[in-house]
Amino acid sequence: MSVYTTEIASDKIPSDNVIHQRLLSAYHHAKKFIKGDLLELGCGEGRGVELLATLADSYIGIDKIEAVVEKLQKKHNDFKFMSGVFPPFPFEDNSFDTIITFQVIEHVKEDQNFIKEIHRVLKPGGQALITTPNIKMTLSRNPWHEREYTGDELTSLCKNYFDKVEMKGIEGNEKVLEYHERNRASVQRIMRYDFFNLQHRLPAGLLRIPYDILNRMNRNKLKETGDKLVKSITFEDFSLEDQNEQNLDLFCLLTK
Question: Which whole number is the average pLDDT over 61-70?
Fold first, then answer.
């Protein structure tokens, strides 16, 4: 059974390529920070296992989708995978040198406790890397997200528990921005039929199915009308830059 929605982009779906490469880029930018015992919160389909796990002394990945976790454990039996909903985390204090959690915090209801728990299980001197969409670049409400952040908002949240917070961001080059603007125009054409602003008025649960259908149709249309552009974008078209409103994703580095 497939676990994919448009919220869980796949490298197996051609129209998802731009989103997949954007997510993949965070793992490449994270390489230089990996050390010691590594925990990944929300490991998903294992995008980062092959890239990052071998750079660490040990790797544990945890995700709520049990079927994906079981598949990953069979494929990567040198590493450990767990299924579960968090926070809290099923680990003792001061357990990990590095924690990565990419495109996860926006799905977590208890974001304060999430950051608190990251601080708890990090070893002194350990580092955590967080990515999440920059709300300044969001094109419509995403009903799969509990909330989205500006860089300043996420910094403020993290400073409740961490003294050292460095906020950066992932940006796209000209090719990525061309795709983003095509996507923006297409989304705006769809949203003009939302006469009653239902995307912001209805409960998230009622919006997920129509959101997913329209999002998939939109991605397929963008590929059909710009197939060469969609295929050509790779993780190398995304760079790690200083925080600004043009960041597609926030990239936050926390040090305990």
Answer: 92
Query: Which CATH number characterizes residue 86's domain?
Result: 3.40.50.150
Residues in contact with 116: Cβ distance below 8 Å, sequence separation at least 6, in sequence order: 87, 160, 161
The span from the CA of 200 to the CA of 194, in Å, is: 10
The pLDDT tens digits for 91-141 are: 999 999 999 999 999 999 999 999 999 999 999 999 999 999 999 999 888
Domain count, the chain: 1
Instruction: For residue range 166-185, list pLDDT tens digits in order.
Output: 999 999 999 999 999 998 88
Q: Would you say residue 2 has pLDDT above 60?
A: no
The whole domain housing 21 covers 14-255
Residue 6 lies in a domain: no
CA dist., res. 24 & res. 17, Å (int): 10
Is residue 43 within 8 Å of 49, Cβ to Cβ? yes
Is 88 inside any structural domain? yes
Assess whether pLDDT exceeds 60 at residue 4. no
Residue 70 lies in a domain: yes
Residue type, 181: E
Residue 134 gets which letter from DSSP?
A: B
From CA 97, how far away is CA 65, in angstroms rounded? 25
Structure token pair of residue 159: 């400073």
Residue 208 lies in a domain: yes
Predicted pLDDT of residue 1: 34
C-alpha angle 217-145-25 in degrees, rounded to nearest 5:
75
The residue assigned the tokens 């961490």 is 162
How far apart CA 209 and CA 204 sit, in angstroms, is 10
